[in-house]
């Protein structure tokens, strides 16, 4: 979506929110330090930080799940590879859950961009919010390192396959057909990472080789996965990213850059 047409304004908001989140929730960050310590002890390479992501797969009226964990996993792996290469931030998947409760039509086949903003204001995204809560994490969504939830919906209105409300929501929506490898005209591993980028406050980028290029048309015109230095800074400073590990290019091993 193209909500953040002014990158400077978006940047200011990132810092305002990051500062507020850190002040408000140092206790949560401390609670998460246990997780960091475990990785330090086991010697796992954490990069400069960790972004926790969970996936919720919706179910249609017939009771059929729209996708499977096996189908979603390649896009999650791609998001980890893309963010690690471009920012040093790792993606840690905290869970892929199928929601058995059949959602209302507006949640199963949602609108995009401005329509989704309006629906969010009107409370039509309540179904998502109710199922968002990371069962293992704190209830307060403002804490540092709050996970981003990727919701797999059936169909998004228009020619859109993914949508994010930017940093104002801890969730993004993606269309189930993106993950169906048997459908080469819709299968696209870049969309999940692109929507995570919006949730991390990245606006669109004009370069087709960049992850934040607005359009991607599989199978032959899929957007690139590059990220600029400026984008790296925005992602690393984000309230969703739990700091940890080494700065790539300084003292960390080459594997930091994936
Ligand atoms: Zn976009």
Fraction in helix: 25-40%
Report the CATH topology name: Collagenase (Catalytic Domain)
Low-confidence stretches: 1-46, 246-258
Strand content: 5-15%
Q: List all distinct small molecules, including ions and cofactors, that are bound in this structure.
A: zinc ion
User: Helix count?
Assistant: 8
Radius of gyration: 17 Å
CATH architectural category: 3-Layer(aba) Sandwich
Number of domains: 1
The biggest sheet, with number of strands, parallel, antiparallel or mixed sense and barrel status, is: 6 strands, mixed
The CATH class designation is: Alpha Beta
Instruction: Report the principal-axis shape.
Output: globular
Order of helices and strands: HHEHEHHHEEEHHE
Q: What is the SS-derived class? A: alpha/beta
Amino-to-carboxy terminus distance = 28 Å
Characterization of the model:
- It comes from Nakamurella panacisegetis.
- InterPro entries: MetalloPept_cat_dom_sf (IPR024079), Pept_M10_metallopeptidase (IPR001818).
- GO terms for molecular function: metalloendopeptidase activity; zinc ion binding.
- This protein is 36% helix and 14% strand.
- With 258 residues, it is an alpha/beta fold.
- The protein has one domain: Collagenase (Catalytic Domain).
- β4 and β5 form a beta hairpin.
- The radius of gyration is 17 Å and the shape is globular.
- 40% of the residues are buried.
